[in-house]
Design goal:
Thiol Ester Dehydrase, Chain A; 5-stranded antiparallel beta sheet; 132 residues; alpha+beta; 3 helices; 42% strand
C-alpha cells in the first residue's frame, strides 16, 4: 500500500489536567489547550503517514495553520482527524480537524515532510558538535 490523496486517520484523547491550557502555560483556564489540540492533529497525520512509509522513514511537522474554535472541559473525549489532501514530492499536506463530544472544536491544515530518520538524526546531532 502507498500514500495517496484521500487517506484518513483518526486518533483520540480524553482531556486531563495535564493537557489543559493551565498545564501548558498557554492560558489561564482549565480547558483543553490549543497546543494539545494541535499535537493531537499532528499525531493523526503522523500515524496516517507512518502506516505507508518504509522502515527508516518517517515525517516531521513543518507547518500548522489551525483555528481553535471551541473549549473542551476536563473529562471530555476529543477526536482528531487527518486527511491527506496533497502530495508534492516529500511534502504532505493534510486537512485536520478536531471535535469533542459536543461538536467541532478546531480545523485547519498541516504540512509534514518525509525524512530518512537516520540522516535526520545525524544532522540534528551535528548541531551539538558545532556548538562552542
Amino acid at each position: 500500500m502507498e500514500l495517496k490523496v484521500g487517506l484518513t486517520h483518526e486518533t483520540s484523547i480524553t482531556v486531563e489536567d495535564s493537557n489543559t491550557a493551565i498545564a501548558y502555560g498557554s492560558g489561564g483556564v482549565r480547558v483543553f489547550a490549543t497546543p494539545a489540540m494541535i499535537g493531537l492533529m499532528e499525531k493523526a497525520a503522523l500515524e496516517l503517514a507512518d502506516q505507508y512509509l518504509p522502515e527508516g522513514q518517517t515525517t516531521v511537522g513543518t507547518l500548522v495553520n489551525v483555528k481553535h474554535t471551541a473549549a473542551t472541559p476536563v473529562g471530555m473525549r476529543v477526536v482528531a482527524r487527518a486527511e491527506l489532501i496533497e502530495i508534492d514530492g516529500k511534502r504532505l499536506v493534510f486537512k485536520v480537524d478536531a471535535a469533542d463530544e459536543a461538536g467541532p472544536i478546531g480545523s485547519g491544515t498541516h504540512e509534514r515532510f518525509i525524512i530518512n530518520l537516520e540522516k535526520f538524526l545525524q544532522k540534528v546531532e551535528s548541531k551539538l558538535t558545532g556548538r562552542a
